[in-house]
Specification:
Elements (H helix, E strand, L loop, with lengths): L1 E3 L2 E3 L10 H39 L2 H15 L3 E2 L2 E6 L2 E10 L5 E12 L3 E11 L1 H16 L7 E16 L10 E16 L5 E4 L1
Parallel strand pairs: 7-8
Antiparallel strand pairs: 1-2, 3-5, 4-5, 5-6, 6-7, 8-9, 9-10
């Protein structure tokens, strides 16, 4: 009981006062718990969220279109890619690739194209591709541009084709070229094209 003006006043049931030191300890503990929760969110969940967002971006249509634009800048012709797969750092596997003409016709198609790049070199590997005469002319024009425009092509380039189907048109025996009857001949072979800087400061192409 407490005394008020000399009169005993009964204390309310259960209304016990908490010691001051205990109250400060509880407040400090709650502050520490909130600080730990905040640190967990900042150091744990935020990096995970950023990583998930980065992964989603690399599989998005916007990223695929950006890769297509980069290829078009280098090749100079429209490029269409079905899917972009990042197999390791600085290496991509492009699926369902199509190289088109300026008029929109299909110039070449490949199921997969692997591209590995560094600061000085780009390596391209193609599994199987059909090579009609118009594709040969387009590749020859691109090689000519690489030789004559070093400011545009600042990296060496190595292209490997595992299975190249050369398509040739030849006149059917016994008929003249004016008849318009031609038989397509196809030859299979591998191909490697190296566009590299020469020792004298110039440029060289090896096939």
């Amino acid at each position: 009981d407490l005394l008020a003006d000399g009169v005993a006043v009964p204390q309310a049931c259960g209304a016990r006062r908490r010691p001051r030191g205990t109250r400060m300890f509880i407040e400090r503990s709650e502050s520490r718990v909130r600080a730990v929760h905040t640190a967990f969110v900042l150091l744990g969940l935020m990096p995970c969220a950023c990583l998930c967002g980065w992964a989603a971006l690399r599989h998005s249509a916007a990223h695929r279109h950006a890769v297509e634009r980069r290829c078009e800048q280098v090749i100079g012709l429209p490029v269409r890619i079905g899917r972009v797969e990042h197999v390791r750092p600085d290496a991509m596997r492009l699926h369902d690739c199509t190289l088109a003409t300026a008029a929109g016709g299909v110039l070449a198609a490949a199921a997969t194209v692997e591209v590995e790049s560094s600061s000085t070199e780009v390596r391209v590997r193609v599994g199987r591709v059909e090579c009609p005469p118009r594709l040969t002319r387009a590749v020859a024009a691109l090689v000519h541009q690489w030789l004559g425009q070093p400011a545009r092509f600042t990296q060496d380039c190595v292209v490997d084709v595992d299975d190249l189907h050369w398509q040739e048109s030849r006149t059917t025996p016994g008929r003249g070229a004016a008849d318009g009857n031609r038989a397509d001949a196809s030859r299979r072979a591998g191909l490697r094209i190296e566009c590299v800087a020469a020792a004298d400061g110039g440029r060289a192409v090896r096939i």
